[in-house]
Design brief:
Layout lengths: L3 H5 L15 H6 L5 E3 L1 H6 L7 E7 L4 H11 L7 H11 L10 E4 L4 H7 L3 H13 L7 E3 L11 H7 L4 E3 L7 E9 L3 H12 L4 E9 L1
Parallel strand pairs: 2-7, 3-6, 6-7
Antiparallel strand pairs: 1-2, 4-5
Helix pairs in contact: 5-7
């Protein structure tokens, strides 16, 4: 039964079908191909603070995933929280298992959070927290807006993220898993890890939907 909201703002799936945000056929195409990027590789990429990145898949392995992430993030379709979050739950098995693991969503600047209406990283972290029983806490704030990192070359991304994040909660636990939607150069995640380690964290990993 359609509501007035359905008439005003019809649900359109990833491939353009009306009636739902994502169809079962589309979900079958959003396959999980988990990958793990270890510390030695991250250091070669000049990421000096992050200890590991686990991604649920890559865009090359699952082209429909790119559409889903973009619809979730830029199309403001928060209903994709669960199907995308469940990909993270499966990939989280590749993380280091600590009894005191705490999830930390990568924050948006307040201006971006206001315009989007939600922080996609926090929504994803909530799904993982519920499924894995790991607590979630917002330890970080973004000190200034950075614009769209996707349009910047790697060197500029690394420079732009310097001093971008500040820790606002204490004590900071020893083992933290950052949650975000995508890792491209890893500059954002590494800047988060640096702020957390400067505040006392010992081991910081990242869990993302896709390695872009």
């Amino acid at each position: 039964m359609f509501s007035l909201l359905d008439l005003l703002f019809p649900k359109v799936s990833l491939s353009g079908r009306e009636g739902e945000w994502v169809t079962s056929e589309e979900m079958a195409e959003i396959r999980s191909y988990p990958i793990r990027i270890e510390q030695n590789v991250l250091r070669e990429r000049r990421l000096r603070s992050l200890d590991r990145i686990v991604a649920a898949s890559t865009y090359d392995a699952s082209p429909m995933l790119r559409t889903a992430v973009q619809r979730f993030k830029y199309g403001k379709v928060s209903a994709l929280q669960n199907p995308l979050g469940l990909l993270l739950v499966e990939a989280s098995k590749l993380l280091t298992e600590y009894t005191d693991t705490v999830l930390c969503p990568v924050p948006l600047h307040w201006t971006r959070r206001f315009s989007r209406g939600f922080n996609q990283s926090q929504l994803l972290a909530m799904v993982v927290s519920t499924a894995r029983g790991w607590p979630m806490q917002n330890f970080l704030v973004r000190t200034r807006p950075t614009g769209h990192q996707a349009h910047r070359p790697r060197k500029e991304r690394l420079t732009a993220m310097h001093g971008m994040f500040r820790v606002t909660a204490s004590p900071v636990p020893a083992h933290i898993v950052l949650v975000d939607d995508i890792a491209t150069t890893g500059a954002t995640l590494d800047a988060c890890a640096k702020a957390l380690k400067d505040a006392g964290a010992q081991h910081v990993e990242a869990l993302v939907i896709a390695q872009g």
